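Supplementary material to the annual report.
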Amino acid sequence: MCGVCSHAHFWASNLAIESALGIKVDETTATLRDACNKLQILQNHIMHLGFLVLPDYEHLVRSDKYVSTLLRVNRVVTEALNLLGGRLTNPNTYLPGGFTIDVKPTVIEKILSLLRSLNNDLRELANVVLSVELPELTDPSPEYASLRESPNVTVPVGGPYVIDTLRNTYVIHGNYREIFVEQYLDSSTSKKCLMSGKKVFYTGARARLLNYLRRGRLNTTNELRYLITNYEAFFKENPFSNIYAKIIESLLIYESLLQALTSLEMEKIKRVKHDNNFRGGFGVGVIEAPRGLLIHYYELSPELRVVKADIITPTVMFSKHLEVSSEALIRGLIDNERDYDDTLVKKLVEALIRAYDPCIPCAVHVIKKR
Amino acid sequence: MPLKLAVVPLAGCDGCQYNLLSEGFLDFLKKLDVELVFWPLLGLKKQVEAYDVALIEGSVVSSRDLEILSRTRMKSKILIAVGACAILGGVQAGIKKPGAEASFSKPVSHYVKVDYHVRGCPINTSELIKLLKELADGNLISVSSRRFSKVGRDSFRIDGSLIEIDTSKCVVCGRCVEACSLVGARVLNYVFKGVQTTISTPYQEPLENAGCINCGLCFAYCPVGAISLKTKTKDLLDKVREGFLRIAYIEPEALASLMESDNLELEQVISALKIIGFSRVFVYSSLCEVKNNAENDVLARSPVEYSILSKHVPEYRVRLLTPRIPQDAVYITQCLSWRNIVNSLTTRELQSLIRELGVERLGAERPDEILDFREGVVVVSELKNLKQILSDRAKHAEKVVFEACPGGCLLGGGQPVSKNRDLTKVWVNRRDLLERLYTKKD
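Predicted assembly:
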């Protein structure tokens, strides 16, 4: 599918196939695949922050010690992912209904010990990222979309999926195309997505944290709760704060991963039984990928051949928001004529784009232009 | 001097690069005295005149990619294509949309000379590391030294009256050997060793000389067409057109198999035979001839069974159920072995004739008569079952008819290949159709 967040794509497609065929999974399997996706989110956030964001703020970060920490975190998380998914890109152990391997308690223990070794490293990285001073920018279109239970649950057990936005709540099943309307532009191979065809919105770490805050009861430690509430104003105001959101979400996800895997009841896991009575149908899978909401849709014929497939990726969803924000940023700089400087504008816009973390492989379409 | 390494991404999913980052690749570079000079993912864009080694990930989908690739080729001493996209063109190579820029997505080697390939989606990092280590040590491995110069196999042909074998097409899957031993003929077997291995009769003797009974199973199970049938359909059709052959006698087993494999109705098959030129069509089973034989005989359904029985149960009197059909008739049967005795057509040949006609041309016609006799008869397939039945003969009052092919005549050597891959299901479907044929008759 895509090399950047393969695991997220695999789970979204598995959810869709499960919903098309009516396969149900047990609680332990649901927790395990949520853990896989969270590990992927963690890995993506760390890579993004380290390799794309921090070099933009080089002059603010005092030392480059973080690079070795970053690589260490990346390697440990990848190792944990490999234990469950088989490999980082195109995992080979996932299938509708669960895993192709017996996930043994020893594997979980190994993952837990790997994760525990990361505690200090993550905090060190958080200190570096949160010490960065962000450029000023007011969000021109404050609308956010995320799955209701996120970031606590990133892979739901099954549909229908509840999506919270700032003002509305949507229930997603076969109607996802009415809510997320894609636009095709002649000038670009990239697609743009608007909510209900009108609203420009954002999805991703910042959206997840804002909706998490809005629900009021933060199910986390005091320290993290303090951190999240402290940055709430930033998240609401400034699109650049996606960087803060990513590192804070990483801490949150790390904590919930440890909690979920420690209390996992491995004896309740059930083997997938293959049944030949599947009759085809259609199904939607919605999950929280590292960059935001990811929707997969499949239609299966009675012979179980895929006759239609459709994917809406997070980058497509927020690319319009990114465009609007860049416009606002440039406009603000032009209005403030004293500071205007071409190289500064270019640098700031590039930094903004990197803060959004658009994933190019997923956002382009080359096969069919409607 | 450290080796200067560049990682150049073209169109792809970046998965291979992510794998490199996470699997200790950077540590390895440090250890090996390799200097990274270009890697956009890490923000590395050092200005150097030339690269020692360049890794290319992704395929060429735009003029920009092509420009980057050409420039990299000019700058680098060794160019390594990394991953499925760079080597084969990736998923995007399947796009065939005229006009769209992506329609010319091509592997890297299509445009420039590639020195090494590291395959996989994603690649195995250790494989790349091994290659880079060799290169850093100055061991340039030439591609030709890693390949065999030439692997050849002497091929030959084996002739028979109905079947011929061309070993140049053989893939040594062993199905014919298995089938030949199962039916009890044991004519075909493996010969030679190693890469020279192929199948043959003893000393490459013609098939009949080696004891072939013309059951046709080897031909039916060969997946690559190394064993082929000497078809005489054209001569037969000429005779039909000239009016020498006017009547068709079709075996119920052949009919059921044809209906199953091409999803046809009984009336459609009969209509096809009428279109081919037969004025009358009978559904006729050679089991009708059972009543003419003595009680204690073991009855062979075809010449194949006759040869096997005379070899394996010499203590019994074996009789062949010869079809009693007129001289101007064609016998359409599941068995290849009638070819040398009467004017016959196998089901598989009839299938290809019907396919040539086209299903849409077929009408609906009933057969002139259905002739069959199955009461008081026990039909056995496979030798071991026959021997068991014969050992407690006292229990059975019925006459014993033997069908040599595994699964009986429904899966005979002249039968068509079904679209269904599961042989058990094919057999069950054909049997159901056969039973339906009799109930219709009643």
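The longest strand of chain A covers residues 281-289.
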